[in-house]
Amino acid sequence: LRLGWKPPKKRTAFDLLPLVISLHDKKPRLFPPPKKATLEVPIRHPDSSCLDSLRLRWFALPVVSNMKLEIGGLSFPAAPFSGWYMETEIGARNFADENRYHLLPEIARRLRLDTSRPTTLWKDRALVELNRAVLHSFAQAKVRMIDHHSATASHLRFEEDEAQAGRPVFGRWDWLIPPLSGSLTKLWPRSYNPTEFSPNFLTQKRLY
Fold it and tell me: Which of 12, 104, 146, 151 has the fewest Cβ atoms within 10 angstroms?
């Protein structure tokens, strides 16, 4: 808003924000994303229609565009990259974090869970069902997504391949452990050397 973005007249919690590009310390310019090029997945629960009226949705392709690529001492400030989602990025973080969408209380209410005390584990139950909804919805939309159990199993195979090649594995434990049922994965009891190397994607100071 401070940069001049004009939101739609009927605002929602899922309005697409413009791309912000600044060249050589010049004033940032806003570029609206082309609507036809932005696939959004409606989020529905596989067993219940209780979430339908929330009209939850999420964009299909995760793209990071605010980091710089560092290679051999050279920095490239405009180097966007993409991949595909693990369901917990959306269901356990974007939708569930209190400083983001904070949906767990509403999900629990719609699922008719007892929220009167923490010992009912209503947050845990709502979190699982929300992630089930995300996985189901992306599958229905035929958009690639990986679940956290498959992702950690894939990383274990990567570690085994690296060990056979005589190479050490580096990583940040807090990034490798999923935010849902982390202790159920075989990565949980392991420790990792968090040393970072070049080339790498690094955070950079915002110019606006």
Answer: 12
